[in-house]
Specification:
Shape of chain B: globular
Mean pLDDT of chain B: 91
Largest interface: A-B, 49 and 44 residues
Number of strands of chain A: 0
Radius of gyration of chain A: 17 Å
Oligomer: heterodimer
Order of helices and strands of chain B: HHEEHHHHHHHHHHHHHHHHH
Structural class of chain B: mainly alpha
Largest sheet of chain B: 2 strands, antiparallel
Chain lengths: 100, 487
């Protein structure tokens, strides 16, 4: 029997993996992928809660999250392309005119 | 089956937002349809200003009403109205100061104005959001526009870098906010702030670790947006790298919007658990003011200094959140309004004094401004005095209200630390005045980036700063009425 707890634990593990990825990876695109992983972990938790609570709002929220994530991806990749045009790197250790 | 209810909605309630969206799209269309010869693009600035004025007039019509529409997810009340006016005011001032700056920096593209308007829509959604979904959507509409605006100087690496940092950290913070929302939803079964409050009142929260964790994650997510320490790492770099007008824009509007949502979420949804969140906000406030003020002393770049000063101001506002009484909440509204005038005014002067390519924005580049251009120096001094909190300026009254709110709630220690911090801040604000008046000019300030519009913006900021400082009671009264809805 798969209970809500299983889904929440899965979601927490995926979220943590995303956070760790953001913190230790150095490639801007991979960092961005890890952020997407975090958002999808949240989606799992929303859908699972919505199912067990028998309420629609959680599923509705997921649609909005996905839409916003798509918009964010468009803008984010455009920004990374703009950086690459001027600097020819996407390694965030090299993108350091200003001190972090 | 899950219960699905038919939405009740009142299209009139979002009329100001629709107006701004309409004007934003008109700006885009006019930009594409007009010939390149229009190059000056004065028309677009005037169109955007018109949109803001129309939206403000429409918003004014709903004064005094309390109305929930879109299935109780969107609130029109005095609270959101007060914030909407702050957003419209700050956006208007930013458009006034942008006009000559974006010509100088050769980033005179039409979408600049459209993005500013779209970002303002996001802020208004956030202030009006009565459920977490609406607040989240507003936050993203606001942030995504600003990610683009930060990187608007496409050919400049520093602007790209600022944009990338803001984007990565902003999206990271959004992840935390969303996870917090999902945990709160999972434990209460609601995303509507009032229903969450109802659940907590029924069942209590101490025995519910998921709910508390969700609340903490929401505080982290919004803490990023208001630039509180330890979530402030992006602020100095982004403020320094962004075009100066956008620095002015994002140091006021998004911060005000995040505080609007913060206050509404904490007071309406988590009002019953305030013993838990007060401790978190207490530590945040303490760290935010202290780090902001101490690090600002070491800065040599004016934009970077103003970035740390903006962190410090967020710290003062967090004190008011900790106090969580009537006076604290209304002083948040008052202080943000005062900050709008003084910060945009100060950055307008930075724009005028700097040269193409954002040259000459070090503090010593202000040397001798007092002899060469006394008018500008007087205005800059006024804004600096106001930020330092010296009477008779808006900043003094704002700080006075915030510290008295803290004392009223029994947080005397926090108020004392706040006052000590104000004293520290006087050092770096006064240093600019000293350099302006007591050093010989090292350069010729010409050509100044002057246009009638930027002068209007500075005059408005000066009037606002003085008016709020000398006659604060009227605005404070309005602020007090605005927060009644939160209780």
């Amino acid at each position: 029997m798969i209970t809500l707890t299983h889904y929440l634990v899965l979601s927490a593990i995926l979220f943590t993996l995303g956070v760790i990825g953001v913190l230790i990876r150095r490639n801007a695109i991979i960092i961005f992928m890890c952020i997407e992983l975090m958002l999808n972990a949240v989606n799992i938790s929303f859908v699972a809660c919505a199912h067990y609570l028998n309420s629609m709002q959680g599923q509705l929220f997921v649609f909005f999250t996905m839409t916003v994530a798509a918009a964010e991806a468009a803008v984010g990749l455009a920004i990374i392309v703009a950086v690459f045009r001027n600097k020819e790197t996407v390694n965030i250790d090299d993108i350091n005119i200003m001190k972090w | 089956m899950a219960n699905v209810s038919i939405m009740t909605f009142n299209i009139l309630s979002i009329l100001p937002i629709l107006t701004l969206a309409g004007f934003g799209m008109i700006v885009l269309l006019v930009d594409i349809l007009s010939s390149r010869k229009l190059g000056e693009k004065n028309l677009l600035a005037y169109l955007s200003l018109m949109g803001i004025i129309v939206a403000a007039i429409l918003a004014r019509n709903s004064t005094g009403t309390t109305l929930f529409s879109f299935n109780e997810s969107f609130a029109i009340d005095n609270y959101s109205l007060f914030f909407n006016f702050i957003f419209l005011l700050s956006t208007g001032l930013v458009i006034l100061i942008s006009h000559s700056y974006i010509k100088r920096e050769e980033i005179n593209h039409g979408e600049y104005y459209a993005l500013i308007l779209f970002s303002t829509i996001g802020m208004m959604l956030m202030a009006s959001g009565a459920d977490l979904l609406n607040i989240y959507i507003g936050l993203e509409v606001m942030s995504i526009s600003i990610y683009i605006l930060t990187g608007f100087k496409r050919s400049k690496l520093i602007s790209n870098e600022a944009s990338l940092k803001y984007f990565l950290l902003g999206a990271f913070a959004t992840g935390f906010l969303l996870y917090g929302i999902s945990l709160v939803y999972g434990s209460t079964g609601a995303i509507n702030l009032k229903q969450i409050a109802g659940f907590i009142a029924d069942k209590g929260s101490i025995s519910n670790p998921l709910l508390l964790m969700g609340m903490a994650l929401i505080i982290i997510g919004l803490g990023f947006k208001v630039a509180s320490v330890p979530f402030h790492a992006w602020v100095p770099d982004v403020y320094e790298g962004a075009p100066t007008t956008i620095t002015a824009f994002m140091s006021v509007g998004p911060k005000a919007a995040a505080f609007a949502a913060f206050l509404r979420i904490l007071m309406t949804a988590f009002g019953a658990t305030h013993y838990e969140w007060q401790k978190i906000i207490y530590i945040l406030a303490l760290l935010t003011m202290t780090v902001g003020n101490v690090v600002a002393i070491a800065q040599t770049n004016v934009k970077r200094m103003l970035a740390y000063s903006s962190i410090a101001h967020a710290g003062y506002l967090l004190i008011a959140l900790v106090a969580a009484n009537d006076m604290g909440m209304s002083s948040v509204l008052f202080y943000i309004l005062a900050y709008t005038f003084m910060n945009i005014g100060a950055l307008a002067i930075v724009i005028i004094v700097s040269q193409k390519g954002d040259e000459f924005i070090q503090i010593h580049d202000f040397a001798g401004l007092g002899f060469k251009h006394p008018g500008l120096a007087v205005a800059m001094s006024l804004f600096m005095l106001s930020m330092a909190g010296i009477p008779p300026t808006a900043g003094f009254v704002g700080k006075f209200y915030i510290f008295s709110a803290a004392i009223k709630s029994g947080y005397i220690g926090l108020a004392v630390i706040g006052v000590i911090n104000s004293v520290i801040s006087v050092f770096y604000y006064l240093r600019i005045m000293v350099i302006m008046y007591m050093k010989e000019p090292t350069r010729d300030f010409n050509p100044l980036t002057l246009s009638p519009l930027i002068v209007v913006a500075i005059v408005l900021s000066v009037i606002g700063t003085l008016h709020l400082g000398i006659f604060p009671s009227k605005i404070m009264e309005i602020a007090q009425q605005s927060i009644l809805i939160l209780k």
